[in-house]
What we know:
Elements: E1 2-6, H1 12-20, E2 25-29, H2 33-42, E3 47-48, H3 52-57, E4 62-65, H4 72-82, E5 86-88, H5 96-103, E6 111-112, H6 121-124, E7 133-141, H7 153-156, H8 163-167, H9 169-180, E8 184-192, E9 204-211, E10 216-222, E11 229-236, E12 239-246, H10 251-254, H11 257-268, H12 277-296
Parallel strand pairs: 1-2, 1-4, 2-3, 4-5, 5-6, 7-10
Antiparallel strand pairs: 7-11, 8-9, 9-10, 11-12
Keywords: Oxidoreductase
Protein name: Gfo/Idh/MocA family protein
Amino acid sequence: MRIALAGLATSHPYTDARTLARHAELVVWEPDPERLRRFAEEHPTAKVATGLDEVLAGELDGVVLTVPNPEVPEALGRVLETGVPCFVNKPAAATRAQLDALRRLPVHERVLSASVLRFAPAFAGVRADLEDVSSVRATVRHDVGMWADGYNAWQDTPGEGGGTMVTMGIHGVELLVALLGPDVRLVGAAGARRHYRTLRSEDTGVLALRWGSGIVGTVEILGVSEGNSYTVTLHGRHGSESVVIESGPDPVQGLGYAGTMEAFLGMVRGGPSPVPWEQTLAILEVLVSAREQAATG
């Protein structure tokens, strides 16, 4: 089995590769020499390609795509031409133009893009009784101080990577859509810089959502936090139920990185994506709308 890691634009593909290396021969492409050097040190047997064309010209069983958001539509379009399964590291779009470009692509059933938290063991067995649930809340505690000194500035730039509202907000929206479905719309969003004053985006945000069923929900984004954790709370007539996702002793397992790669390998073996593209587009629509509203609020 040969798996390509096309781009190393965030930390995720480095983590993905640790799982994939146990199953497949790795091919890697990344234009930034320092990022590529770090990867090659950990995976010295990986074949290094000089460009995306070279990656896609070889025999592949799957592609993990991680390029800056403005480059995703074009790069994904080229991967789709090969017909091989593809996992797009989150978020697949961060602006209206990027999302519109994604909608125009001929995405097939073996394309997956999701927050890894969807596949976290603590969340895997959670189900929502839609007849009982009246409201939901997702709280995302994920520190964004790494961006305060300019690291990966494109991620923190609202018009490129979406900033905290999109890049961290996806974790909460993803979990709620996984439970309640894609018939959801944004009804309000706001963000603020409370601590990291040098950010291009916000370090704190809130989204208000409404499902077609009448269920309402909120996503709280706390980008100033001593630790990372993710909580989903379901409120119903008989009380409230919460599930907390934390890294635990093995973050690759606890946060769902391993589960995500197992889902991707399931596509490589011939299965469809476990996350319908309709859900992914609904999640991205909420996030892009939040980004637009927060930018003008």
